[in-house]
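Q: Could you predict the 3D structure of site-specific DNA-methyltransferase (adenine-specific)?
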Amino acid sequence: MVKPILKWAGGKRQLLDELYSRFPESYSHYHEPFFGGGALFFDIEPDNGTINDTNTRLINFYKQARDHPDELINLLQSFDDPESDPDSNRRFSDTNRKGKEIKNYYYQQRELFNNRPHGDEYDELEEAALLLYLNRTCYNGLYRENSSGGFNVPIGRYSNPDWVREDEIRKASRVLEDTDIRNTGFEYITEVAEEGDLVYFDPPYKPMSSTAYFTDYSAEGFGKEDQEHLRDVAQELNENGVNVILSNSGVMYEIYDEAGFHVEVEGATRSINSDGDNRDEVDEIIATNITPEERQRAGQQGLADF
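A: Sure. Here are the predicted structure tokens for site-specific DNA-methyltransferase (adenine-specific):
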């Protein structure tokens, strides 16, 4: 079992037992089209399959962790404490692009990270290192982009933040070695998933209320039509003999129930919330086409027939 490297909104570490209880007795390849922090993937440590996310910088991070772990770790080890003074030898040591004062090292790193959406040249390895650094030092580990695609989370308050994550990177590099890492829409799965494979969908959730914005980890969002299209893709996979497990917010119960999936409500505590003292349990569904009779026996957690 490998720990996820990144904190990520909607992480599934607290839902792992419930997800495993829906696994089939055996499956061939494992696919995760909405990867995020990859809690289930890293817990399974599959030998092959695909992972995907539409967040280009997130996918770049996993590719760098897989292909260049030593270089990534070395670069992370060269970074300073977020509260320290900016590096005078790098860009944005005084002001950001808009002329606003850069007060500390964190905000300089954030401005350097945002080279990609602003059209500047960027280095993929450095961008990956900056993503992990910001993820471990920003406010509450939140990933959020503005409408222009720029990361805009303020600095967090940590006594001894670990942004190197050497052990996690090395283990993740090993697990990802034979994994096809993609940066595209979730529809790709209809072309690669074969009969007997297992697909886990963990899309950006439809908000439980008008004040909840679980889709705002990227500038694009994930709306009603996307949710319905995902349901249709899940149905297509079911017709092709692919094992499907999907998690979503409780308000999505009906559309999967009506589509013929086995749907149950589970409670899940949000791991990321703007109010750290208000991480209440919210209703979440798990939908699957795997019947109770086809599911693995208790105690088989994480085993697959590759």
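Q: Anything worth pointing out?
A: Residues 63-164 form a domain with the Adenine-specific Methyltransferase; domain 2 fold (CATH 1.10.1020.10).
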